[in-house]
Input
Amino acid sequence: MPRAFDYDATDISRAYATARRLTEERRRVWRGHLSSELGDCHLRTIIDLGCGVGRFSLLLCELFRARVYGIDSSERMLATASEQSDARRITWLRASADALPFGEAEIDLVFMYLVYHHLRDPLTALRECARVLTPSGRLLVINATLEILDSLRWLPFFPSARGIDIARLPVRKTLSDVGREAGLSLIRQRTVAYPVASSLTAYADHVATRTFSTLQLVPDEEFDRGATEFRRWCTRQDRGQPVEEVIDVFLFCRER
Output
């Protein structure tokens, strides 16, 4: 079963920039979550690790008025990120999570959104995060876990998707334990909701963009069949209500 997706092997960065962009509603919700987690921190330097097309890089820059480094291993994702309006406010760097191009204790926040399950070596990556953090620095990991897998409405429509994500996603305790072994202390963990679509019909359109790495890894025939069946299901169930998903948030600090 495939476990990794190569973001430089396709033109998905273009679709990603459109389909996964932060709408004003999403920005409002994430501003609230980020302020709740980090509002009491003095953040001057931030790494958006695995920044992709940079949708959170600019939000972090605006919210905390900090110097932000958008780091990703994908050349195409970074190229798309750098084409955004206001992209010059961010320093874009191509680098691996297990070899960050910074000295010790230089960074106030390392931010990782839907990145942890892509890491080749999570322990090494989190050790790198601990290394570059200032003594009062924070690591914020936002990621799906196995505990929330069954909340995804589209999952049953793509039979191989469950196996793909079971092989990739961490359980909450494992992620926390890896952080501890890397030299980090867990401050808190919580599960938050965020908007993904204005209705179930719009949600079916969103899934049909195939801009989830899991759906890139299922066979093409299975994806086409599943997207069609999911659209039919959404059309029958749609009551015009906004659709939310949930995700887990882990806030770490350096061990003292």
